[in-house]
Structure formats: C-alpha cells, structure tokens
Amino acid sequence: xxxxxxxxxxxxxxxxxxxxxxxxxxxxxxxxxxxxxxxxxxxxxxxxxxxxxxxxxxxxxxxxxxxxxxxxxxxxxxxxxxxxxxxxxxxxxxx
Length: 95
Description:
Distance between the termini: 26 Å
Helix content: 10-25%
C-alpha cells in the first residue's frame, strides 16, 4: 500500500477475494478508478463523504441497495453490493 491514507479499491477487493466491476466515465473498465483511495466505509447513506465505500446491507426491514443511488449522488466512490447495480461507480460484488 502507498503512503496515502486509505486503501485502494483493488487492494480491498483482493483482501475480500472478489473482483471489482464498474465503468469509467468513458464506459470502459478503468484501472485508475479501481485504485481510488477508500478513506471511509459506511452502510448509512446519510454519512457519505468523498472517498467513501458504501456498503449495501440487506436488513430485516430495509435493503441498503435502495439507498445506493443516493449514496453515489452524495459522493460515494464505490459500492459493496450483493448484486450489480450499474450506477456508474466501481462495485465490489459479494454473495
């Protein structure tokens, strides 16, 4: 890992042993985007700041996937999801 704070998304995916999916602004896979620094992780879309990974957690009453679009609008740079959402940011899909 570099001397910058946070962790690169592709490094996080390696730790989770999953792939990273998503698109760049041009619509193709972008290694630079996969290396975006994650400085905060949250499952609460109201707590999104820049460089945040939003975790879409399915709970007993609410499904965090419903809040993914608002999290992206608020500045989330990546999503941890149970299924692909196609919201234009990198996604780490886990089952």
